[in-house]
Design a protein that fits this description.
It is a single chain. By secondary structure, the chain is an alpha/beta fold. The protein is about 40% helix and about 15% strand. Strands 1-2-4-3-5-6-7-8 form an eight-stranded mixed β-sheet, with helices on both faces. A hairpin with a 5-residue loop joins strand 1 and strand 2. Helix 2 packs across helix 3 and helix 7 packs across helix 8. The longest helix has 15 residues. The termini are far apart.
Length: about 300
């Protein structure tokens, strides 16, 4: 389980949930889950990426919870979810299915949004029965389905075997990240954010990423190194929108374009000029708006039910 390290004020400070629960996945792994917003409102489920936590979605959670039920959870080994015995794409899918089953009523539909490894979680679960029961639409932010190391631009050199080898060493390092220092902020900004990212955005991301235990970070790096979820893209048979930053070094736009070309029901693609990998933090209003648009378009909802709840 990671240290709980995040900013405590400003737009990226996590809001207080309406309720918290622990969900047990198929292999017995325990997952920390939070629910925000009115219980009878349209549902949104947010899956964070590698080395992050529920805190990563703070801006979206606060904005959407005004009139949506927002479910956020810590991927296994991240945030308040303890480390697990196994790490795999199947585990990602198992965990998402467990969260959907625990937080949604039978047949209830939700928009599912995933960032980076959270998007890969969606792709891993695309063919699963519980996912298909509950997911009505999807937002994929800054993610890819395969060739992550080969296409990464973290190492600034020409594509080829040498760059791939060096990238594998960098992303798969077992070294501790240490405290959040000025140098650490500069490194994180270079690797994961656009050059124009504001200091408070960098600070929020650095604190979250540095809280991830190095053993968990390494374990998931090995899964991402060999990732192949191209079949999941083809199986994602719900309306899906894609967002990517043009300065994303971790999952460059080549991945988003491949997703758009292969998705059965792509309903929009947005490339954000100059933004990096952390799009929900770098463009919080836009990401929230995309989720809202999907919920409004695809979730059947009777506003009178929410009025009755508040009466």
């Amino acid at each position: 389980m990671s240290r709980l390290l995040h900013v405590t004020s400003g737009p990226y400070a996590p809001p207080v949930p309406v309720r918290e629960l622990t969900v047990t996945s198929a292999d017995g792994s325990r997952l920390h889950v939070e629910v925000h917003g009115p219980e009878s409102a349209p549902a949104v489920v947010l899956a964070h990426g590698w080395c992050c936590s529920t805190a990563f979605w703070a801006a979206q959670t606060r904005d959407l919870a005004v009139d949506h039920r927002v479910v956020v959870y810590d991927q296994r080994g991240h945030g308040r979810s303890p480390a697990a015995l196994s790490y795999s794409t199947d585990a990602l899918a198992d965990d998402l299915e467990a969260v959907l089953e625990a937080t949604l009523t039978p047949g209830e539909k939700a928009v599912v949004a995933g960032h980076s490894m959270g998007g890969m979680t969606v792709l891993a679960a695309a063919g699963r029965a519980r996912f298909r029961e509950h997911a009505v639409a999807v937002l994929l932010c800054s993610t890819g389905s395969s060739r992550l190391v080969d296409e990464s631009l973290v190492v600034p050199m020409r594509a080829g075997r040498t760059r791939t080898w060096l990238t594998r060493k960098v992303l798969g390092t077992r070294a501790p990240l240490g405290p959040v220092t000025p140098a650490a902020r500069r490194i994180l900004k270079y690797g994961t954010m656009g050059p124009g990212s504001a200091p408070h955005m960098v600070e929020a991301c650095a604190r979250i990423v540095h809280a991830c235990p190095r053993t968990v970070r390494y374990a998931w790096s090995q899964v991402l190194d060999s990732l192949d979820l191209d079949h999941g893209v083809r199986e994602l048979a719900v309306p899906t929108a894609v967002v990517v930053g043009t300065a994303d070094r971790m999952t460059p736009p080549v991945h988003a374009r491949a997703l758009v070309a292969a998705l059965p029901q792509c309903v929009g693609s947005t490339e954000l000029t100059g933004l990096g990998h952390m799009t929900p933090v770098e463009a919080p209003e836009l990401v929230s708006r995309k989720i809202r648009e999907l919920a409004a378009a695809y979730i059947e909802f009777d506003p009178s039910e929410q009025i009755k709840e508040g009466a």
